[in-house]
Structures are given as C-alpha cells and as structure tokens.
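Q: Convert this sequence to structure tokens.
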Amino acid sequence: MVLEIPVLYREQIRYKSRKEIEKLRVAGRLAANALRVAARAAKPGVSLLDLDKLAETYIRKNGAVPNFKGYHGFPGTLCTSVNDKVVHGIPTDYILQEGDVIAIDCGCRLDGFNGDTCLTVGVGQITEESRRLIQTAQLAMYVGIEHCRPGLRLGDMATAVQTFAEERGYSIVREYIGHGIGRDLHEDPQVVYADQRPGTGFRMEPGMTITIEPILNTGSPKCIVEPDGWTVRTKDGGLSAQFEHDVAITKDGPDILSIPDPEFELEDGL
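A:
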C-alpha cells in the first residue's frame, strides 16, 4: 500500500518546545541504552524472551515503562525480527542461531514522553551478504537524518533514501513507515521513505520531532503479516534490516535524540 501524504500538516503536528525536546532526549537515551543491553546479549543460544526480559528490567529499573508492551495488545517490551522478519516480531522462545540477523526495536515512556529506536545486529559470525545489508540499512537511516533540515520536504528526504538503497541493490518496505513522536508514541506526520517526488510532502520545520526508520530488504519490498497478527515477514523470504533514531528538526539541522550513553555503545559503534 502506498500512503498518500497530505501536503499540509500544521494543524496535526505537535511542535515541541526546547524543554519538551530535552524530555524526549532523556526518554530516547534510555530506550537506546536498553536497546543495546539487549543487542549485546544477542548471542547464539539466547532466546528472544531472554532479550525482552533484559530490556524490560533495565527500563523499569530506571524509572520508565516499556511503551510497546500492551500497545494495541502487543505482548513484548521489544520487537524482535529475525532474518526474513521485517517488523513487529513478538519475542518468543526462539533460540538465536549462529548467522542470524536480528532487528531489535525498543521503546519506553519516561516523564510523559516517548523514546523509540531500533538497530539490527548479526548473531555470531554472519555472511558478507548479511553484513552488507546491515551496514547499508544503517547508512540509509543517516541519509534520511541528513535531510531533516528546515526548508527541505518529505519528498526530498524520501527520494534520497530510496535512491541510496536501490543503487546498492536493496528495496525499501512501503507499508511500515516513520512517524512523529512526543507525548504519544505515534503522532503526525507520517514519514515515508519511497515513491515520493522531490519538493513535495510536508516541509521540515523547527520543532518537529520524527522517527527516521527505513526498512531495507534484500529482495522484494512486499511483506506478509503472519497469523499472530503482528509479525511481518518478507514475501520472498529475503533478509530484512532496520535502524531507527528519534530526530528533532532545529534551525541548525537534525538533532538525534536517541543516542545511548557512551558506556552502552556496541563494539562496532552502533
């Protein structure tokens, strides 16, 4: 499904003050820390439920609550999407295997504001194909972030992301997109990463806070929802990877709000 994005969003977008952006930064940092606690533990022999428990324990220990858990009935603190799973993977007793690729999405709510961030890591030794997919997905996110500047439009950002990914042989998932973030986990505007024209879509303006989270597949962008009603997988069985940051648009450009504390950085700099 290709979403139609209205040109004008001013009535729907909740522009944030500096104080509100700082609260989003605190929530985003906590979500990023918890995400890396889980990512560090993503080793062969560890279950998805183990990762979920680690993240929830960290979030609650630091005075926040998991904002995914219970959201429209979702049962986990994390979304754990392995190999051909695209998004919204429910944490189960699946045991991670050498060579798996896992996208881990983590969110929390602290002092009334939300953080939402995702990364993809390899489990043990992975193939060159998997490594390249992960690297390209991360770079695609940063291409999007670089275009979060006042005066640029959604179409400018989406075109840059799509061009970057497709020139490297990957497709971008259409149905699952980014969003505004603030007191609600999902706010306007909708943020798409493909099939847009430069100079169209909403204009980036200071005070907007959005998520940049393109999803890249090795094959077709088409997806299927599994019987659990949540887990989405690639239709052709190809691998999928995603990275996500919360971003505030300022007069000076993008300000990433979901950077972890230095002690939580992974060895490869994720």
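The radius of gyration is 17 Å.
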